[in-house]
Amino acid sequence: MAPEVLPKPRMRGLLARRLRNHMAVAFVLSLGVAALYKFRVADRRKKAYADFYRNYDVMKDFEEMRKAGIFQSVK
Amino acid sequence: MLATRVFSLVGKRAISTSVCVRAHESVVKSEDFSLSAYVDRRDHPLPEVAHVKHLSASQKALKEKEKASWSSLSMDEKVELYRIKFKESFAEMNRGSNEWKTVVGGAMFFIGFTALIIMWQKRHVYGPLPQSFDKEWVAKQTKRMLDMKVNPIQGLASKWDYEKNEWKK
């Protein structure tokens, strides 16, 4: 046995402390992931769609496709 | 003469009884595997049986001393009592090992061996790929997809520059 006396370790509340710490980390991580998703994926996609349709001319698009020859009903 | 005859009868009875009891003992005695076993487990900190079953003479003496006040026990005696009761300490039973290196190495070896098998299969078993995998076919296919403006917002056609007729930088 070691000559010096070790400090008495924590005897109680071990599970409670573990749960508390994990809750905090889980909360922070979830918020972080949600924020990252909102800004980098959701908002970016909404902006891409808005930008695409702002000045979208469907007839011009159709004419380009028709000239490229992909349709069977209209040449 | 009669007394000895009677005594020998009684003696015989006693002997045969004790023989029966002894025989019965070995039949009824529990096998080792049906009794609780000693285990070193984190989730079973105090097993039902001690680690050392058969104590030596000095250990028996120590167990007798344990019945008195414990402050009279020396440090070594306390450790000896601990080692009688338990095989490994928690620190010892929880120690890490290098087994993971064997596991990872073995897994990678067998994955590599599987790769060799697949290479052999590609060469000697599988037939040719369909024509839709040819470079020219894929080029014509991609051109048609761009003409149709497939996924023009975030997908394929959004990566094509229709003015310069090339992929966007």
What does this structure look like?
Chain A: The chain crosses the membrane at residues 14-54. Chain A: InterPro entries: Cytochrome_c_oxidase_VIc, Cytochrome_c_oxidase_VIc/VIIs, Cytochrome_c_oxidase_VIc_sf. Chain A: Residues 1-13 are mitochondrial matrix. Chain A: Keywords: Membrane, Mitochondrion, Mitochondrion inner membrane, Transmembrane, Transmembrane helix. Chain A has a domain at 39-74: Mitochondrial cytochrome c oxidase subunit VIc/VIIs (Cytochrome C Oxidase, Chain I). In chain A, 69% of the residues lie in helices and 0% in strands. Chain A has two helices and no strands. Chain A has helices spanning 14-54, 58-68. Chain A is rod-shaped and about 95 Å long. Chain A starts with 13 loop residues before the first helix and ends in a 7-residue tail after the last helix. The mean pLDDT of chain A is 95. Chain B has 169 residues and is an all-alpha fold. Helices cover 54% and strands 2% of the residues of chain B. Chain B has a two-stranded antiparallel ribbon. In chain B, strand 1 (160-161) and strand 2 form a beta hairpin. The longest helix of chain B has 27 residues, at 2-28. The termini of chain B are far apart. The mean pLDDT of chain B is 88. The interface between A and B is small, with 11 and 12 residues.
Largest sheet of chain B: 2 strands, antiparallel
Instruction: Say which CATH homologous superfamily of the domain at 39-74 in chain A is assigned.
Output: Mitochondrial cytochrome c oxidase subunit VIc/VIIs
Outline the biggest β-sheet of chain A.
none
Mean pLDDT of chain A: 95
Task: Give the largest interface.
Answer: A-B, 11 and 12 residues
Order of helices and strands of chain A: HH
CATH class of the domain at 39-74 in chain A: Few Secondary Structures
Q: Would you identify the CATH H-level superfamily of the domain at 36-93 in chain B?
A: Cytochrome c oxidase subunit IV
* CATH T-level topology of the domain at 39-74 in chain A: Cytochrome C Oxidase, Chain I
Protein name (chain A): Cytochrome c oxidase subunit 6C
Mitochondrial intermembrane side (chain A): 55-75
Subcellular location (chain A): Mitochondrion inner membrane
Organism (chain A): Pongo pygmaeus (Bornean orangutan)
